Amino acid sequence: MADVTVRMRVNGGPRSASVPPRLTLADFLRERCGLTGTHLGCEHGVCGACTVLLDGQAVRACLVLAVQADGAEITTVEGIASPDGELSRVQQAFRDHHGLQCGFCTPGFVVSVTAFLRDNPDPTDEQIRDGLSGNLCRCTGYQGILKAVRAAAGPSAGAAAPEETG
Amino acid sequence: MKPPSFEYHVPGDVDEAVGLLAELGEDAKAIAGGQSLVPMLALRLANPEHLVDLRRLDGLRGVEERGGTVRIGAGTTQAAVARSAGVARSVPLMARATPLIGHFQIRNRGTVGGSLAHADAAAEYPAVVLALDAELQAVSPRGTRTIPAAGFFTGLWSTALDEDELLTAIDFPVRRGRSGFAIEEFARRGGDFAIAGAAVALELDDAGRVARCGIGLFGLGSTPLRAPAAEAAATGAALADIDPDELGRTAIGELDAVPADLHASADHRAHVGAVVVARAWRRAAEEAGRRAAEEAGHRAAEEAANG
């Protein structure tokens, strides 16, 4: 089966590779770009651990083929903090409010919540719960995550999030 | 890499896409947002030799209202449907169904056409197009044809689309005036496929009787379904004389076989089905009744002003 050349921008830098069409975006990021912050839990769209921003929109990287993302702008969890390493508002809130324990699901939560708060800067608790429903966590019982999202919400919640470009 | 190997094609327009589908035949599968197909590839429930990616077909995206019809392009994402003021105003049942689909990350990729062509019996949009008597537009190398929703879903994950046909758009009739719309489902967790769900669209005549109603059921058979006996029982009746619980039982009573799985036995699913039909009917009836009262109020005010 013929490989296909894909080009995209990942966390601001250009990446290109010749890939088999069946390679998922998640595997492309982990194996071809060395960005192993994008975690793979279920690999069929249930757990949300692999969530990345594709043209600014949160998507499951295991449910996108790398070839479908040709030409796209991708932000992974590695692209969420400032270049100097300062945590984003969402990341800092997860740290402050015990929004993580083992940390496996955390990249997916951080990316999802970053997009969610950009689009809903002042959500109700019900909207937060709905916004979190696409990510599974097996450690925290979610209460710390809820607190973190509440803390990160507010008028400037969207300030640091990449703009939606798609 | 979990999916099986396949050849990848990216046509630039609809003609090229249907040409590829015609040439490749049953070994090819079209992919839009991939939110149903990629999991099926990962689980190897689908094993196509060729994937035809529709991502460059920009003409398939968008919402357009013309006359009494709203046309939603098959490539329009569910997220775009949710953001569309035109859909909210003119096809409120689609707008109300959309937040029930998966999670926002899924809706950012998943498309209207993909959901309908995948034809999952437990999905929301297929029941909505049935309840609204929408019309599906399909293109093949032989031309374009219109498929009524009632004839589109032919079996488990199968539709009336031929191998070389592409779903390009869905036409929804705009129903205003004394109309009401509601969708209700029960799922164990938000975003899961529903154990059972129902979509109701109803319209009253000027005497408060049901002039038209459509009841779409999901999760209750091997395909999305209509509930013709319940619809017939309600049509022509005064809204006040219809018992929603009885209507729910009628809708479920006419089903051949209610599926059983890990999540629900057939009996439980049938019970939930009757309950969601009744809930959706109550909400749709309440909306239609309110609009009828508003309309009567406007008319009375106009008559008073003119008199």
UniProtKB/TrEMBL annotation, chain A:
Residues 4-80 form the 2Fe-2S ferredoxin-type domain. Keywords: 2Fe-2S, Iron, Iron-sulfur, Metal-binding, Oxidoreductase. It comes from the Bacteria. The keyword Iron applies. Pfam families: Fer2, Fer2_2. The keyword Metal-binding applies. SUPFAM superfamilies: 2Fe-2S ferredoxin-like (SSF54292), CO dehydrogenase ISP C-domain like (SSF47741). InterPro entries: 2Fe-2S-bd (IPR002888), 2Fe-2S-bd_dom_sf (IPR036884), 2Fe-2S_ferredoxin-like_sf (IPR036010), 2Fe-2S_ferredoxin-type (IPR001041), 2Fe2S_fd_BS (IPR006058), Beta-grasp_dom_sf (IPR012675), Diverse_Oxidoreductases (IPR051452). Pathway: Alkaloid degradation; nicotine degradation. GO terms for molecular function: 2 iron, 2 sulfur cluster binding; metal ion binding; oxidoreductase activity. Coiled coil: none annotated. PANTHER family: OXIDOREDUCTASE WITH IRON-SULFUR SUBUNIT (PTHR44379). This is (2Fe-2S)-binding protein.
TrEMBL record, chain B:
PANTHER family: XANTHINE DEHYDROGENASE SUBUNIT C-RELATED. Pfam families: CO_deh_flav_C (PF03450), FAD_binding_5 (PF00941). Gene3D superfamilies: 3.30.465.10, CO dehydrogenase flavoprotein, C-terminal domain (3.30.390.50), Uridine Diphospho-n-acetylenolpyruvylglucosamine Reductase, domain 2 (3.30.43.10). This is Xanthine dehydrogenase family protein subunit M. One of its GO terms (molecular function) is oxidoreductase activity. The keyword Oxidoreductase applies. It comes from Actinomadura montaniterrae. It comes from the Bacteria. SMART domains: CO_deh_flav_C. Keywords: FAD, Flavoprotein, Oxidoreductase. SUPFAM superfamilies: CO dehydrogenase flavoprotein C-terminal domain-like (SSF55447), FAD-binding/transporter-associated domain-like (SSF56176). Residues 1-177 form the FAD-binding PCMH-type domain.
